[in-house]
Design a protein that fits this description.
Blueprint lengths: L1 H11 L7 E9 L6 H9 L34 H4 L3 H6 L2 H16 L12 E7 L5 H4 L14 H10 L5 E5 L4 H14 L5 E8 L4 H9 L24 E9 L8 E10 L12 H15 L6 E5 L8 H12 L8 E4 L2 H4 L6 H15 L1 E2 L13 H4 L3 E3 L4 E2 L5 E7 L4 E9 L15 E7 L2 H13 L3 H10 L9 E8 L2 E9 L7 E5 L6 H8 L3 H17 L8 H18 L5 E4 L5 H7 L5 H10 L17 E5 L9 E4 L4 H10 L50 E6 L8 E3 L2 E2 L3 H13 L5 E9 L8 E7 L5 E6 L2 E9 L21 E3 H11 L1 E3 L6 E5 L4 E5 L4 H13 L7 E13 H11 L1 E7 L4 E4 L2 E11 L8 E9 L1 E3 L2 H16 L3 E8 L7 H9 L5 E8 L12 E7 L5 H10 E11 L11 E8 L4 E7 L7 E4 L8 H8 L4 E6 L6 H8 L8 E6 L11 H9 L3 E5 L2 E9 ...
Parallel strand pairs: 2-3, 2-4, 7-8, 7-12, 8-10, 17-18, 17-19, 19-20, 37-42, 38-39, 38-40, 40-41, 44-45, 45-46, 46-47, 49-50, 49-52, 50-51, 52-53, 53-54, 54-56
Antiparallel strand pairs: 1-5, 1-6, 4-5, 6-13, 9-11, 12-13, 14-15, 15-16, 21-25, 22-23, 22-29, 24-27, 24-32, 25-26, 26-27, 28-30, 30-31, 31-33, 32-35, 33-34, 34-35, 36-48, 36-56, 41-43, 42-43, 47-48, 55-56
Helix pairs in contact: 5-7, 10-11, 17-19, 18-19, 18-21, 19-21, 20-21, 23-25, 27-28, 31-38, 35-36, 36-38, 41-42
Length: 1509
């Protein structure tokens, strides 16, 4: 800001008179040919927007019917501008009209354009889009010269023959003020002496309107209603406007002075490129006021940018309120030009400036129309700090006008102008002094209208401007005229054709004795003549004592000398001739050879000799001014002075003599007064011929073959089928529509459409071919037909639509949008973004509403989705054909533009879907097999003693899991030293690591003979060797290789007996079939530890443990007399920051109380296990081991028994019920705390009941034994014996452990532990033949998950309970699920993002139920099912932090991440945040709290990594 501030201060520091002034204005506006007509339009509250403008058919679809156009774009005076007729034919109307308005603005400033030749005059021409370029680039025109936007400025500079900067600017809606800013700066910095800013906007092709309409910013009714409650966008309009700028000290007229103009850019915005930013706008306005030293109270009126859009108006109003209105005592008057003339886009700023000048010139602020009720929610209006000027009112004196101009995207500008000070009236000539006014014009009308203007409103300032303009010839002006004003009355108007080559003027001097008194009387009103005659006569008296004023000879001479003086001052080119030697003195004076005094002295001394006459030699075809009594008899025009000297001067002007007529009058004082009549509207052009101006034609614009590259439609990524991005059939038809008739047709029909194959969305090239007569089309990809059918434009669309009625509202029960897309997602339709267009529907999907997003593709696809919803199964059906699709474009747009949504009806009997103006008949589909997901990893979660017999793979699995659990590493760096007698183990470990989430490996294998070649700097976490404990030298080498906390795995003979080794702790000892594996770790001293005893039923230990973990190593202790949840809590807390200080001891046998000083516990403490379990007389841990491949039989429910599903109305619960029903269940009880609520639940239950399934919904409290007893007894009595109980209930109260509360623990435990214990107790009592007791647990329990310590504990209680039931010979199964796709907590959290969680990907429901069928037939108590994410990004530091971030966010290329976006902006929620924080800490040593991490920008993250490096 500081740099810009000083720069602007420099420009603002103007010496007196060096400020920049707007001195001339002109333009063409909608329904107004000039500024004067625009003034009338504004003050009369006229609307300039029209329907039938002749540019294109007003009934074209997709665009508003009203817009503003300027007239006569085909007219052009090519003769005046020296443009060849062939070039005029191809020249853009923008260029042609720009030339005209530039000339008009220059004249309006009181400047003759010819006077600019060779001057440093800058030209800035601003445009946005040129619709006519669509045609110009097609090659139809003979030459391409003249249509380029960049050519406008150069053409103007070329014609004016000026040498200043010449710039063509292609800009957005802020363009005119950017051009004005450049002009202002150029003048102030001395880069030019004058500046022209011309702006152009022409609407010539409806396709541009349609594209803007699809953005949702155009008003459907074609009305601009800025700040009105009914505002719904803007209407597009033409305009070509120009301002002429000069330094104030050189100006003849000043409309306004530029106090200050400031431009800026909004840059990156969170809301997107087109979203306005009130904050940036406020800062710009405040900076403009501050730099110019103006207080907000000095702003008398503010002209807004105001477009009437939903986003734009409130943002601009807020910025004006904050920057100006809140700092004033009185309400700020504001207005909007666009309400009257529409949005002229690139020309909008100058149009607003012209309105401001009209206000300053007239003293009245023009009213803003289309304001019925001010928009609600704008505090500046509601609190009376701002008001819209709706009636003409006086502009406060001594105030400034502010003008906003904001562009699409980023450019914004604010201009402050002040009116020219009112001058004291110029000293005018006496009323009886005749005023001669000379005017030229391109045609007679121009001259006549200007002269009539003078006579209607005599104005001395206006006359002075004309005198200075027409003192020199205007090249190309073919008519000249004059008028003589005397006593305020019109004396005469004379207009004649100017022949361009003036005739030679002869002035004849001879005896003037009889007529001198009359001539004197006629010319005495000319002060120059009068003063000259008086001066001559006084000199006569001085030189001749007896001089008599009645001396006719000398008196006539004095009059002749006075007229000669006037002609010399007027710089009339003449040839003087004299009749005799006496009058030859006048010839000498006229030729400048003698002075006036010398002429008088020679006249006194000379005597006329009537006999000494000279011959008069006057050429033919010349003009003679006869200043004598003697009539001349020559063959020439004899201009005899008869009645009026001014008439003679006027006639001389008409004959081509340029007169400095202003020198006859007192010196004019410039600049002229305010409200001096404008000149620009009086300039006329010879436009008898019409030149080419682009006219839209539907028949010739679009070819019938066209290629499309599907890469730039981001919204299409929302169309995913079974995880694959595909091009929807609606988009294929949309491309056919574009190829056939663009979109500009009132209606269109597609028939017999076939979609041959699915087209993946991956840089696809699509080729569309249509036979023009039959309308048959083919759509190809890679020369292969993917779709075909017929398309045509109907004469009457109703002939092709089905006669089916609209339904009324039949049911109040509905599926919400979320429920609709949950249903479709389960089928394999993974829609997102604009493709989620179904807002709601009834449970039968027979009616509902669809959202209109100005997108035909997504809307039609949403209609097709209602067909896909009809199938109650989870099968995937793809559309392969449409019998007929009819689109009544105009009718549809009228409907949807009112509410942005439309009611749909699905008539199942005749297979017709209707919505808005669209009807689809008979959509045919085909079953498609779902893609197979990556196989899940199936494991059992069991107690494994530290000393045990295992097979080799199980041993390596257990040891690898222990290493990862103890070290919390994300990359195992290991080396194996092998001998020749055994196969290496690390390849087996590598396979094991591939089945472990978030862990990768870096392995080295070398022979025993060459251990010295190993890189010792690697600090290996694990070293594997053979008979290491029997080879001291090898042991020493290995100890040098292993890291401080590293591990040694030694392969010994089965008979080997371990003896303690100094500085090493034996962790595990596994006997395998052929060898014994021992895992050792370097010893560490046993620090004092604090122990805390835990119980899930009494939570008073929680604050103690939270405090202790902040400073101490802590052991949590549990004695499992009853099932406890210590294991799940520990695995979760250890993954949080500072969690490595926590370990747990769980004793499941009768053992002494925990005492860190006792040998029983001290030996185990020294091993530093994270999890220590004493069970069956041995210390060990719980580990995930592969599930054996047992043969399984088909699962089947007993139709005579009932099945109870707690949490049955949840996402997973409903799908589990669906699976049970599909496998034969006919009696189900669904338990929910809140009962039936959603339409989705009701639809599901309705479908089951309609197929004969007895479904009971219970809201009984299952967290108590009493509630469970009531539930089970009721199920038995009403439905039959209970065969299976399932608990899917989930209450997530996530928080890092330090932020957890007892209440959060209670809520989470209640849904898991309390229910499980109650169900266990009741089923033991009431369900003696129960087959299934299934508890849905989570990977959070077995593998840990930061922030879910309470959830991990709750699930762990259930798992221990299932183990106890199995030990008691009862059914019991706890399943540790990973993230579940489509339903459940994970799906709700991440939606469509499919973000990997802790190295897992979501498991598809189909896969879950296949796994469940297998689990139900096994005897295991606790099992696990997870899908491991592909390890294409390692969790170590071999990849950059950005690569890791991109992988987590699902972004393929980290380079596309916006460096200024925060991680929260990029989609990082708490789930992803926890993962990323873990990766940063483990892999890169970067510790950032989660709350700070999400507010970090990408660039700050990179900087943090660089500092670490």
């Amino acid at each position: 800001m500081s740099g810009n501030y000083h720069y602007n201060k420099e420009l603002l520091a103007n010496p007196a008179g060096s400020g920049v002034a707007i001195t001339g204005i002109s333009g063409r506006f909608p329904n107004s040919n000039n500024v004067l007509e625009l003034r009338t339009t504004l003050f009369n509250k006229e609307k300039s927007l029209r329907e039938d403008t002749g540019r294109w058919d007003p009934n074209l679809s997709g665009i508003p019917q009203k817009y503003g156009v300027i007239k006569d774009t085909e007219k052009f005076d090519c003769g005046f501008f020296g443009v060849h007729h062939r070039q005029a034919q191809t020249m853009s109307p923008m260029t042609r009209k720009s030339l005209e308005v530039v000339m008009e603005a220059i004249f309006d400033a009181g400047v003759n354009p010819c006077q600019l030749q060779g001057s440093r005059t800058a030209v800035f021409a601003v445009t946005s889009c040129t619709d006519s370029e669509i045609f110009a680039t097609s090659g139809t025109l003979e030459t391409q010269s003249g249509w380029m936007r960049s050519e406008i400025a150069h053409r103007i500079s070329y014609f004016l023959k000026v040498k200043g900067p010449s710039c063509g600017l292609i800009m957005d809606c802020c363009g005119s003020f950017l051009g004005l800013d450049m002009a202002n700066s150029s003048l102030k910095m001395g880069k030019c002496d004058n500046a022209i800013v011309v702006v152009c906007n022409l609407l010539q092709h409806p396709e541009v309107c349609r594209q803007i309409a699809e953005l949702g910013v155009l008003s459907p009714d074609g009305e601009c209603k800025v700040f009105d409650e009914s505002a719904s966008g803007y209407a597009r309009s033409d305009a070509i406007a120009c301002v002429f700028l000069q330094k104030a000290k050189h100006a003849k007229r000043i409309y306004a002075k530029i106090t200050h103009i400031r431009t800026g850019s909004e840059g990156y915005k969170v809301g997107g490129l087109l979203a306005p930013s009130s904050k940036t706008q406020t800062e710009l306005i405040e900076a403009t006021l501050s730099e110019s030293g103006i207080h907000p109270s000095q702003i008398g009126y503010l002209e807004t940018h105001g477009t009437g859009t939903i986003l734009g108006d409130p943002q601009e109003a807020e910025s004006i309120d904050v920057a100006i209105a809140q700092k004033r005592q009185k309400p700020l008057p504001i207005g909007a030009t666009k309400n009257s003339i529409g949005h002229t886009e690139a020309a909008a700023g100058l149009c607003a400036l012209v309105k401001a000048i009209i206000a300053m010139e007239s003293g009245l602020i023009p009213p803003t129309i289309n304001i019925d009720q001010l928009r609600k929610g704008i505090k500046g209006f509601e609190e009376n700090r701002m008001r819209v000027v709706t009636q003409a009112e006086e502009l406060p004196n001594n105030t400034y006008i502010g003008i906003n101009c904001f562009g699409w995207g980023a450019n914004i500008a604010h201009l402050i102008v002040e009116p020219a000070s009112k001058k004291v009236d110029n000293e005018s000539t006496p009323n009886d002094f005749p005023k001669l006014v000379l005017v030229s014009g391109r045609n007679k009308q121009a001259v006549v209208e200007t002269l009539h203007q003078i006579n209607r409103q005599p104005n001395a300032d206006f006359v002075n401007l004309l005198h200075h303009i027409f003192k020199d010839n205007v090249n190309g002006h073919m008519y000249r005229g004059f008028t003589i004003l005397e006593d305020g009355q019109q004396a005469e108007i004379s207009v004649e054709l100017y022949r361009q080559h003036p005739k030679k003027l002869f002035v004849f001097f001879g005896p003037l004795e009889s007529g001198f008194l009359s001539l004197k009387q006629q010319s005495i009103k000319v002060s120059l003549f009068r003063d000259t005659v008086v001066r001559v006569l006084k000199r006569f008296v001085q030189l001749k004592a007896n001089f008599d004023e009645n001396d006719t000879l000398l008196g006539g001479f004095a009059v002749q000398l006075g007229i000669a003086k006037v002609l010399r001052v007027l710089k009339v080119e003449l040839t003087p001739v004299a009749e005799d030697s006496f009058h030859q003195v006048l010839v000498l004076y006229c030729k400048g050879k003698i002075s006036l005094e010398e002429a008088v002295e020679m006249a006194i001394k000379s005597k006329p000799n009537k006999n000494n006459n000279h011959s008069v030699d006057i050429s033919k075809h010349s003009i003679v001014l006869n200043l004598s009594d003697k009539p001349l008899r020559i063959n020439n025009d004899d201009m005899v002075l008869t009645t009026n000297f001014f008439h003679i001067l006027g006639r001389l002007y008409q004959e081509g003599h340029d007169l400095q007529i202003h020198k006859l009058y007192p010196n004019a004082q410039f600049p002229v007064n305010r409200n001096t009549p404008m000149l620009s509207h009086l300039i006329k052009w010879n436009c008898d011929k019409n030149w080419y101006s682009y006219k839209f034609s539907e028949d010739t614009d679009t070819p019938l073959q066209k290629s499309y590259k599907i890469t730039d439609h981001e919204y299409l990524t929302g169309h995913q089928i079974d995880g694959l991005g595909t091009i929807p059939p609606s988009e294929i038809l949309n491309l056919v529509w574009q190829t056939f008739k663009s979109r500009l047709v009132p209606a269109i029909v597609f028939e017999n459409c076939e979609f041959v194959e699915v087209v993946p969305l991956d840089n696809v090239d699509i080729f569309v071919s249509i036979l023009p007569k039959s309308g048959k089309f083919e759509v190809c990809k890679d020369n292969k037909v993917v779709a075909c059918g017929r398309v045509f434009v109907p004469d009457d669309i109703k002939k092709y639509q089905m006669s089916v009625p609209w339904f009324g509202q039949k049911s109040s029960e509905t599926l919400t949008q979320n429920e609709v897309y949950k249903t479709l997602n389960l089928k394999g339709y993974n829609y997102s973004g604009l493709f989620q267009g179904v807002e709601k529907c009834d449970l039968e999907v027979s009616e509902g509403s669809l959202r209109w997003e100005n997108n035909w593709t997504t809307f039609i696809d949403s209609m097709i989705q209602t067909v896909q919803l009809q199938d109650s199964t989870h099968l995937l059906h793809l559309p392969v054909g449409i019998r007929r699709l009819t689109i009544d474009v105009n009718s549809h747009l009228r409907i949807v533009n009112q509410t942005k949504s439309s009611h749909f009806c699905f008539h199942k009997k005749n297979r017709t879907i209707k919505c808005g103006g669209i009807e689809i008949f008979d959509v045919s589909t085909k079953l498609r097999q779902r893609q197979c997901q990556q196989s899940p990893v199936l494991e059992k979660y069991v107690f494994v003693p530290n000393v045990v017999t295992l097979d080799l793979e199980e041993s390596l699995i257990v040891n690898t899991q222990i290493i990862v659990e103890k070290s919390l590493t994300s990359c195992i760096k290991a080396v194996e030293i092998v001998d020749n007698n055994s196969d290496p183990l690390l390849p087996l470990v590598h396979r094991i690591v591939q089945r472990m989430p978030t862990v990768t490996c870096d392995f080295t294998i070398c022979a025993t003979k060459y251990p010295e070649i190993i890189d010792k700097s690697k600090n290996f976490l694990l070293v594997v060797g053979t008979k290491v404990l029997q080879k001291p030298a090898l042991l020493d080498q290995i100890l040098a290789l292993v890291s401080q906390d590293g591990f040694i795995l030694t392969r010994e003979k089965p008979s080997f007996r371990y003896k303690e080794v100094a500085n090493l702790e034996l962790l595990t000892e596994h006997c395998t079939p052929h060898e014994k594996l021992l895992l050792l770790q370097k010893s560490k001293s046993v620090d004092n530890v604090k122990h805390v005893r835990l119980s899930w039923k009494q939570l008073n230990w929680l604050p103690t443990l939270q405090r202790a973990l902040k400073t101490e190593n802590v052991v949590v202790v549990s004695s499992n007399v009853e099932p406890e949840g210590v294991l799940g809590l520990t695995t979760c807390v250890r993954l949080e920051r500072g969690g490595t200080k926590l370990r747990c001891f769980v004793t499941m046998d009768e053992v002494p109380e925990f005492d860190s000083g006792s040998v029983f516990y001290q030996d185990q403490l020294r091993k530093n296990f994270a999890v220590n379990v004493f069970k069956n007389g041995q210390w060990g841990t719980y580990r995930h081991l592969p599930l054996s491949q047992d043969g399984s039989r088909d699962f089947a429910c007993d139709e005579d028994k009932s099945y109870v599903i707690v949490g049955g109305l949840g996402g997973f619960g409903l799908e589990l019920t669906q699976w049970l029903v599909a496998n034969g269940a006919r009696k189900v009880v669904l338990v929910s705390r809140v009962g039936l609520q959603s339409g989705y639940q009701k639809r599901k239950i309705g479908l089951w009941r309609s197929s004969g399934v007895a479904v009971t919904v219970s809201t009984v409290d299952t967290t108590t034994k009493k509630g469970c007893l009531e539930l089970i007894q009721k199920a038995i009595s009403e439905l039959g014996p209970v065969d299976g109980v399932f608990n899917l209930c989930v209450v997530l109260k996530d928080a890092f452990f330090e932020d957890q509360t007892e209440e959060k623990f209670k809520e989470s435990l209640s849904s898991k532990a309390n229910i499980a214990v109650a169900l266990d107790q009741v089923t033991r009592q009431c369900c003696k033949n129960l087959r299934y007791f299934v508890m849905f647990s989570s990977m959070s329990c077995g593998r840990g998950n930061p922030g879910q310590s309470n959830y991990g504990m709750a699930n762990s209680v259930m798992e221990r309970l299932c183990e106890k039931r199995r030990n008691d010979g009862l059914p019991g199964l706890a399943i540790q699920w990973g993230p579940i796709d489509d339903v459940g907590a994970y799906a709700k959290a991440v939606g469509q993002k499919k973000i990997p969680l802790q190295g897992f990907v979501a498991q598809k429901l189909g896969s879950c139920f296949k796994v469940l069928e297998r689990f139900l037939e096994r005897a295991d108590a606790v099992v696990s099912s997870v899908v491991i994410a592909e390890k294409n990004i390692v969790n170590g530091n071999s990849h950059s932090v950005l690569d890791q971030l991109a992988h987590l966010l699902g972004v393929k290329d980290a380079r596309i991440l916006n460096k200024e976006s925060t991680l929260a902006d990029l989609g990082m929620d708490s789930i992803v945040g926890v993962q990323f924080a873990q990766i940063l800490e483990r892999g890169y040593g970067i510790c950032i709290p989660l709350e700070d991490l999400r507010s970090l920008t990408v660039s700050e993250l990179v900087e943090t990594e660089d500092k670490r490096g």
